Amino acid sequence: MTARAFLVRGLAAGLLAGLVTFLVAFTVGEPHVQAAIDVEESHAASSDATHHHEDDGTVVSRHDQRTWGLLTGSLGVGTALGGLAGLVSAGMVGRVGRLSPRQSTAVVALVGWVAVSLVPFLKYPASPPAVGDPDTIGARTTEYFVFLLVSVLAATATAVLGSRVHRTSGPYAAVLVAAGTYLAMVVVVGSLMPAAERAGSFPADTLWSFRLASLLTAAALWATLGVVLTGFVGRLHDQERAVAARRELAVSL
After folding, report:
1. What is the pLDDT along the chain (253 residues), one digit of tens a residue?
2. Would you say 218 and 121 are in contact if contact means Cβ atoms under 8 Å apart?
């Protein structure tokens, strides 16, 4: 049960999660991305503009973006998150009450989904290319990653707080205090940060479908990562327990 063993399994689980993410994004998300691009191009055509996505010096074609580009990005993000989740899971073994390594790993995946994907999405939901002022892309990206960092730091701090409360007041109080503190922190910070940019005249049904597909893609990533990594860690723990039992038996003979 070493950190290296967790890291290797996390990378493998993340690679598989990245592949599943690509399949979900390609089948569920890409049609809505293309629909958003079609809306943008129709608006440009109606205003006598000559802008096209594959003009203006675009190096990567739309076909490559939605196939090899999407696959490469999905595998890269999945592997990186898997490695981080593996290391965090290694650090949490024995530190979350009486939870087994299998159970604590599942908790890490769940908290990761909430802190890294769900909460930042609720504040700054994903938007297709045609939504928002192009001049504010940099500012919007910065705001998203700042809130993402706040969410992750809040989750880390409340996990430490929950562990301390667990030692004195039990698991029920620990969960209530940790969840309540995290919620309060992200709500306060979120209320102080700029609001998400409005969609304007962009079709509401297309925007809703795009955002729902984005959320489903992120859920597929974390669900696959959590299930596979939990299975890997559980199997490793069972093997270690079997080895320890054989050693105890040998010593007792």
Report:
1. 788 889 999 999 999 999 999 999 889 878 877 777 776 667 655 554 444 444 444 566 766 677 888 899 999 999 999 999 999 988 888 777 677 888 889 999 999 999 999 999 999 988 876 676 667 778 888 999 999 999 999 999 998 888 888 888 887 888 899 899 999 999 999 999 988 877 667 777 878 888 898 999 999 999 999 999 999 998 888 887 777 777 776 776 6
2. yes
What is the token pair recorded at 183? 């919620």
Q: Which residues contact 124 (CB under 8 A, 6 or more apart)?
A: 140, 143, 144, 147, 196
Q: In the structure encoding, which two tokens stand for residue 76, read together?
A: 């890269």
Residues ≥6 apart with Cβ < 8 Å to 63: none
